[in-house]
Amino acid sequence: MSSPHISLEITGENGSIAIVRLTRGSKRNALNDALVLALRDIFEQMPATVRAAVIDGEGEHFCAGLDLSELQERDAGQGMHHSRMWHAALDRVQHGPVPVIAALHGAVVGGGLELASACHIRVADETTFYALPEGSRGIFVGGGGSVRIPRLIGVARMTDMMLTGRVYNAQDGERIGLAQYLVAPGTAFDKALELAVRVAQNAPLTNYALMHALPRIAEQPADQGFFTEAMMAAIVQSAPEAKDRVRAFLEGRAAKVQKA
Question: Is 126 an active-site residue?
C-alpha cells in the first residue's frame, strides 16, 4: 500500500512488522489532510500478520507539523469537524491493532509531535528537536496534542512550549519524557525496528492489554483500576499462548531476565 504522501512496507518474519513512512521529504513531512487520512487508512486496514509497526519520516526530518500552505479558512463548526478528523486518524495509531514505535529525527514540531505522542514508544536520535509553535502563529493544537502531550511531560511544560516557543533538543526531550530512547544520529530507525521485532514476539493479547487497558487503568480511580487490572490479568493469562509461555519458563525453556 502506498500513496504520494505515505508508504507501507510489510517485513519481518511472516510479515510481522509494518514500516509506515511519511514521504513528503521535500516538505519536511509536513502534515496535510491527505497524509492524515492515508495514515488512518493504513492503520484501519493493517494486514492481520502484522504484530508491531514503525513510523518514520523520509529525509532529514520526522515531521515539521501542519502544512500551513494548505491551511484553509474555516468557520468554528468546520474547524471543529476538521480537528475531530485528525483525532480519529491518530486514535487509530494509539488504539489500533498493534504497538507503534516512532523513529524520530530532525524536526518533531507541532502536528509532528502530536503524531509522535500517539505512538507507544518513541526513539529519538541526537538530531531531534521538539517544538509547539502554534501559540506564536495564532492557532491551537488540534490533533490531540492537548490531551496526549501533557501526559508525557505535564501541563506546565506544554504551556511553556506554546506560550514562549521553547524548543527542546534531543537530550532535554528525552530527559522530560518526549522520548524513551536516545540514540546516535541516523540510527533512530534501526533502533525502532529492533524494538518492533522484540515487541512483535510478545503474546498479542498482552500487547493489546498494554495498548488499550493500561492507559485507561492509569486514568481510573484506584479501586476501579485494580478491578480492571484483575479482569485484564485473568483474560490475558487464560490465552493458550500465555499458558504455553509460562510452561516454557517453568520448564527452563525460556530465557530469564538478565541485568542490562
Answer: no
For residue 58, indicate whether it is catalytic: no
Residues 23-53 have pLDDT tens digits of 999 999 999 999 999 999 999 999 999 999 9
Q: In this model, does residue 247 exceed pLDDT 60?
A: yes
Mean pLDDT of 7-31: 96
In this structure, the dihedral spanned by the alpha carbons of residues 247, 251, 254 and 256, taken in order and rounded to 10 degrees, is: 110
Domains in the chain with CATH codes: 6-200 (3.90.226.10), 204-250 (1.10.12.10)
- One of 58, 114, 219, 251 is an active-site residue; which one? 114
- Cβ contact 96:39 at 8 Å: no
Catalytic pick from 73, 134, 174, 219? Answer: 134
Q: Is the pLDDT of residue 171 over 90?
A: yes
Angle between helices 240-250 and 222-237 (to 10 degrees): 80
